[in-house]
Specification:
Layout lengths: L9 E2 L5 E3 L11 H11 L9 H6 L16 H34 L7 H6 L9 H29 L1 H4 L2 H15 L3 H29 L4 H33 L3 H19 L10 H7 L3 H10 L2 H17 L2 H7 L20 H23 L7 H23 L6 H18 L2 H12 L7 H5 L1 H24 L1 H25 L10 E3 L1
Antiparallel strand pairs: 1-2, 2-3
Helix pairs in contact: 3-7, 3-8, 3-9, 3-10, 3-14, 5-8, 5-14, 5-20, 7-8, 7-10, 8-9, 9-15, 9-18, 13-18, 13-20, 13-21, 14-20, 15-17, 16-17, 16-18, 16-21, 20-21
């Protein structure tokens, strides 16, 4: 078993191989000898690269002694793309439920569903901003609590097996949502759908972290593609929610159950289980489901340097998701307190879907752009730019919200900082995931567990953001959401300064040796 604080070598932007000091020794050893020693000293914990890939790619030649056969390159590429496709469809279903639930709850008192009739329950009741915030936050509470457990399970049972749990949980959740208007039951369905994400995402990220262990550029592209698949799925779900709900009503939740079935099929038949990192059977017997070991790893790693900034960013993003959609939805009786806010309660579901499509495409473009800057920019620099972009987005949104009576050209001018800010804000998410993936280099047997922190930090941020948004919207409407966003973005800057000082330590030993 590899030492807990020993990281894998990686390629730098200059093409050199950075070897951890615990592996490579200065002196008369050749490159190959150093790598051979590294392999022996770590008990053979090797990256997922095939011998054929080493033959075709010169930069892997020095690492031939540490390559573990047999991992077919084409099969691996196909499996990686399948994992990303499964991420897209899973997030599509998640986004579809989240947006349709906003439409459903906005007029819940107009519905009475089959399970309600069967159990003798009454029709739905009116749902306010705070109640909606609690329902929305319950999804992330489940994801937060269960992600570490499923992350450890994925390391012990295999990523391929555990990622299949998620679509099954999700399908059950959306069918139950279709069947009821009872608020406690709806909270239960959100908890179950959160478990779906908690089961799939840590195992997917663990797979990606292992596959990109040797190449910073590849890691940047991979995590950007993961975020792109996540965003594209959520965006497609948000955009499809308006037309589907307007066309089918609550029956659209049943259709979403079929979409979860597509995710399950992709994971089961598109990902080659032979390419999954096989768990160490001796380690399984010795440790089992050892959450104590997970806690020790977290105490010893530098992951908590990233946590405050990532949580604050996710909280800010949480303000702009479903609570904002809930406030935008047109109601029969708009709140007269917010008559001066142009965006409050003035849009049909299809109009909201169009706006989400435009914003999502901008965010998607930003993900691709910033994901390709990992070699030239520090992760923390990209995050800092993203926080500034978020502030610009808020400034533009406030201007638009109070542009009633202004000429169209004036409204368009407010849109400029909003558009540019959203594009720049997109870079913060892949940069943060890249930092978290760097942490896993010191713990190659526990990648799934550590990458499960992605969902933990996301959950903390989204829960906090949802509840803050609920109180802010109840009191100040959309202006409250925008003001809270500025505060959270400012909070994120403070820990980021400390993170920049220690960024180069995240992957393990402080003094890596460089083999030219």
């Amino acid at each position: 078993m590899p030492a807990e604080n020993v990281s894998l070598p990686k390629f730098t932007s200059s093409g050199t191989i950075v070897m951890p000091s615990a592996w490579a020794r200065s002196g008369d050893m050749s490159d190959a000898e150093s790598v051979t020693t590294a392999t022996r000293d770590t008990g053979g914990a090797l990256p997922l690269v095939s011998p054929g890939a080493a033959d075709r790619c010169p930069r892997f030649a020095a690492l031939r002694p540490m390559i573990r056969p047999p991992l077919p390159c084409r099969a691996m590429d196909r499996s990686l793309w399948a994992v990303l496709a499964g991420t897209f469809t899973l997030r599509f279903s998640t986004g579809l439920t989240g947006a349709m639930l906003a439409f459903y709850l906005a007029n819940l008192d107009q519905h009475h569903r089959p399970l309600d009739l069967l159990l003798g329950l009454g029709p739905g009741v009116e749902v306010g901003a705070l109640a909606f915030a609690v329902i929305h936050a319950s999804f992330y509470l489940s994801e937060l609590a269960l992600s570490p457990i499923f992350g450890v399970l994925s390391d012990r049972l295999g990523h391929w097996k555990v990622m299949q749990f998620g679509p099954f949980f999700g399908a059950v959740a959306v069918v139950a949502t279709w069947a009821t208007t009872n608020l406690p039951m709806i909270v239960g369905t959100r908890l179950l759908e959160g478990a779906a994400t908690a089961a799939s995402i840590p195992s997917i990220l663990g797979f990606i972290a292992a596959a990109t262990a040797l190449d910073e550029g590849l890691r940047g592209r991979a995590v950007a593609r993961f975020e792109a698949a996540t965003l594209a799925g959520l965006l497609a779900g948000f955009v499809a929610a308006g037309p589907l709900f307007q066309l089918l009503g609550p029956e659209a939740f049943l259709l979403n159950g079929a979409f979860y079935g597509v995710s399950l099929a992709i994971y089961r038949y598109g990902v080659d289980p032979r390419l999954d990192a096989k768990p160490d059977e001796h380690a399984l017997e010795r440790r089992g489901l050892d959450l104590g070991r997970y806690a020790r790893i977290l105490r010893q790693s530098h992951v908590w340097l990233l946590a405050p900034t990532w949580i604050a960013i996710n909280a800010a993003l949480g303000l702009f998701t479903t609570q904002t959609i809930f406030q935008l939805v047109q109601r029969e009786a708009p709140d007269p307190r917010f008559a001066d806010q142009l965006l409050m309660g003035g849009f049909e579901p299809i109009q909201i879907s169009i706006g989400l499509a435009i914003g999502g495409l901008l965010f998607f473009a930003g993900l691709i752009y910033w994901g390709n800057r990992f070699k030239s920019l520090r992760r923390t620099t990209i995050i800092l730019y993203g926080l500034g972009g978020g502030a610009l987005l808020v400034v533009g949104a406030v201007g638009i919200n109070h542009s009633s009576g202004l000429a169209p050209i004036a409204i368009a001018l407010f849109g400029v900082p909003a558009v540019f800010g959203l594009f720049v804000l997109a870079g913060a998410t892949p940069a943060a995931i890249g930092l978290l993936a760097d942490v896993t280099e010191a713990y190659p047997e526990d990648r799934g567990a550590i990458m499960g922190l992605y969902s933990v930090f996301l959950g903390f941020g989204q829960i906090g953001g949802s509840l803050i948004a609920g109180f802010a919207a109840e009191r100040f409407g959309l202006d409250g959401i925008f003001g809270a966003s500025i505060v959270l973005l400012g909070i994120a800057v403070v820990p980021l300064i400390s993170l920049r000082r220690y960024e180069h330590y995240l992957a393990g030993p402080a003094r890596p040796a460089t083999v030219d």
